[in-house]
Amino acid sequence: MATNGTKQAGTPSGESSKARTTPSTRANDDSHRQKILVVGWRKAGKTSCIKTVFQQVPAREVPYFGVTQKIEKINYDSIVPLQIWDTPSNFELDQLEVPLSTFSTIVYVLDMQQDDSYHESILKFVHLMVRAYLVNPNLRFSMFIHKAEVLSEDYRGENYAEIQRATSEEIEDFPYKTLHSYAPNLDFEDPSTISLIINQLISEVKFSMTSVHDVSLRDAWSRVIQGSMEMLAAVESLLLDFTSHSSADNSFLFDIRSGVILATDNRHRTDDLSEQVTEYLSSFLQFRELYKPLTSQKPNGVNDKDERQDTNGAEVDGEADEDDEPRGWWDEEDPEEPWMTQSTRLLPNTTLALWQFTPYLALVVLLRTETWQTRRGTIEYNLTFLRQGVREILQVI
Ligand SMILES: Nc1nc2c(ncn2[C@@H]2O[C@H](COP(=O)(O)OP(=O)(O)OP(=O)(O)O)[C@@H](O)[C@H]2O)c(=O)[nH]1
Ligand SMILES: [Mg+2]
Questions:
Q1: Tens digit of pLDDT for each residue in 201-230?
Q2: For 274, which of 14, 185, 267, 367 is 20 to 30 Å away at the CA?
Q3: Closest-lying ligand to the alpha carbon of 91?
Q4: Which atom of ligand 1 is the closest one to the Cα of 44?
Q5: Alpha carbon of 80 to ligand 1 centroid (Å)
């Protein structure tokens, strides 16, 4: 896969900002990144939720993560550049070195096994939400109800419902007047002000059951990232057009390294289907190294990409590093180069086809085998328009 990891301005991705070595000004400037604050009880699984997805650490390594001692920021380049803040368990909002309003989302991780600490943990989350809401009513809130695989299915469902119910109750019962000093302009004596806050918070907070051992965690991150994508509606409508013109059943746009779904055409989509497609993508991508020689080798044997990239695809030298201008993947692209592509016949009648779409993105299309066999040319032709459309959207943001 030749272009895997060819990043804007040569920024190594999915790594701690502390360890960055790229000299690019853009790489050291975080202002273009959507900031996500990850908070939660001690040992709830905050670090695991981040590292297994955005740094591709295998789930078997999570028991060896040490206690997080201080805030750690993880930069991740995707359709939207992200900065994910991992926090220690004793984290307090007043320790933040930037205003709370600069975050786009707060993810609260709650350990589903620890039912004796649910109450305190939910109180902490609600307090955080209210404080955050008062400084930025547009902030989004997600709760990852984590380690779900440990409980039996019945018990899991009951606890999940109980946590949601308790969170709504705590939002309703919150002593809003105590936060008067954080929002002196709001009249906390006015019941309509309070009920507006309550309704907004209850309807805004999204719950997901998660586990590092299955695709549920990627699904939960998918909802978080989609919430941060201003261009989501535009990308979805391009996917819908592509899917219907190609007589396909469903299309999914994936972030390659994390395996997170960024957008779908949203037709007849179910969670089961998303899970299956996500699992397919992760299995297939285990073999992606095999695709490298195919696309990085020019027909005449000259392998110019390899001169500019290290084995992870990160640029090691050359123009991009000296150039402070943000560069799009299209600046690096050789139009003659074939894209990584693959298709798998799942059932006699169902085929999944995959194309690497940009250095970060892969498109997975689910369609009838007969359609794939008879209309592949049209589909690949339509794909050039879809790709062009996505490129235009990324250019204007
Ligand atoms: N069963 C199960 N255990 C998990 C899961 N995710 C994390 N853990 C375990 O939970 C423990 C804590 O994980 P961490 O990711 O270090 O939790 P943390 O919230 O970052 O912890 P601190 O930084 O110490 O507050 C580890 O022993 C992990 O093995 C999961 O999905 N399922
Ligand atoms: Mg931690």
A1: 999 999 999 999 988 999 999 999 999 898
A2: 14
A3: 1
A4: 19
A5: 27
Closest Cα to atom 7 of ligand 1: 45
Count of all residues that appear for the chain in the document: 397
Closest to 220 (Cα-Cα) out of 211, 228, 229? 211
Ligand 1 atom closest to 40 (CA): 19
For the Cβ of 62 lying below 6 angstroms from any atom of ligand 1, the answer is yes
Give CA separation, 352 vs 75, 344, 346, in Å: 31, 5, 7
The per-residue pLDDT for range 23-63, each reduced to its tens digit, is 444 556 788 899 999 999 999 999 999 999 999 999 999 99
**How much distance in Å is there from the Cα of 74 to the middle of ligand 2?**
13
pLDDT in tens, 318-343: 333 444 555 555 555 555 566 677 88
The pLDDT tens digits of the residues spanning 350-369 come to: 899 998 877 788 899 999 99
Q: Is the CB of 45 under 6 A from ligand 1?
A: yes
**Best mutation site among 39, 41, 42, 43 for ligand 1, i.e. most ligand atoms within 8 A of its Cβ?**
43
| CATH 3.40.50.300 is the classification of domain 8-227 | yes
- The stretch 91-108 carries a mean pLDDT of 92
* pTM score of the predicted model: 0.83
Query: Exposed (0-12), middle (13-18) or buried (19+): which is 210, by Cβ within 10 Å?
Result: buried
Ligand 1 and 212: CB distance under 6 A? yes
What residue ranges do the domains of the chain occupy? 8-227, 232-396
Half-sphere exposure of residue 173: CA atoms within 13 angstroms, side-chain side: 8
The answer to whether 276 touches 215, Cβ cutoff 8 Å, is: no
* Location of structure tokens 């990850």: 38
Share in percent of the chain as helix, strand, coil (round to 5): 50, 20, 35
* CB of residue 218 inside a 6 A radius of ligand 1: no
Distance set, CA 355 to CA 119, 126, 133, 175, 316 (Å) = 46, 42, 40, 52, 26
Share of the chain above pLDDT 70, in %: 79
Instruction: Say which residues have a Cβ less than 8 Å from residue 384's Cβ, sequence separation at least 6.
Output: none
Q: Ligand 1: which atom is nearest the Cα of residue 150?
A: 1
Residue that the structure tokens 């008879």 belong to: 374
Task: Report which bound ligand comes closest to the CA of 60.
Answer: 1
